[in-house]
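Methods — Computational structure assignment.
A single polypeptide chain was analysed. Its primary sequence is given first, followed by the predicted tertiary structure written as structure tokens.
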Amino acid sequence: MKTPERTTAAAFPRYAAGGPVADSASLQWKGLFVRRYRLPRVVDRFLVPATPEPLISCGLAGSAEFREREIGGAWLTRQIGPGHIFVTRSRTPYECAFSSPVGEELEIIQVHIAVDQFLAALEAAYPGKTEEVEVIDYFGRDEALTHLCFACSEMLSARTPGKSRRIADLAHLLASYLVEKYIDVAAEKPDFYSGLPIWQLRKVEDYVRDQLAEEISVDKLAEVVELSPFHFSRVFKQSTGMSPLQFVTRQRITRAQQLIRETSRSLIEIALDVGYTSPSHFAQIFRRVVGVTPTEFRSAL
């Protein structure tokens, strides 16, 4: 079955890496679409369609090396285990792959919040601004949200009927929590322009400038602004026109040019100061960015 680019929460299990072992649809839950999955040990690649409903995924048991990327993009890798949270309302599909150790197949709970439930929570928090918000993609730890996801799993296992007041309360609590913690309101942030807000860009720039001599990873940069590496890479490129690692390279070479112009230090020392332990690699990257080698750049001064 070909996976579409967009689908709904109701149809989402058709395109999952494995069928759900429990599904709230059979219990007629309102406001939530909750499924528990026991995933295959290895999945090379599959497409996750976008949905209008916000999605929360939480690890219940097992572990996996999980990879994700925009279609055709570079893979971002992380380790997933019990309690890890992933939040998204991606407008575009993305690709995933994962592998688990033998006997440690990953079990997860996935919660889609119904559109009407989510919009009601948005309207209560931001009257008249429901069209101006975005859900912030997030991967990491959130103890309160983890407890809510585990509560969903327990109520699913207990086959709590949809008519139970606890289901309505849980749906309201999840929607309200998501709106409170994982929402950006564009109208309240004039420096937000389909990418990172200016203050977050400044945090990334400051971190890179202070750490030029060290190894700098996308995961670490994303951690600085408290976003998932996947979402961070996407909005950073929207903001700057380059990937995070292209930005790091440009900052390293810009600093190297400054040191060559303003000091008499050796090129090997300068290379080390801007994060290159190999002089030949430094010269190669410098020439690619500047158009000449470091030696030629110094000779022309």
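Note: Residues 244-262 form the longest helix (19 residues).
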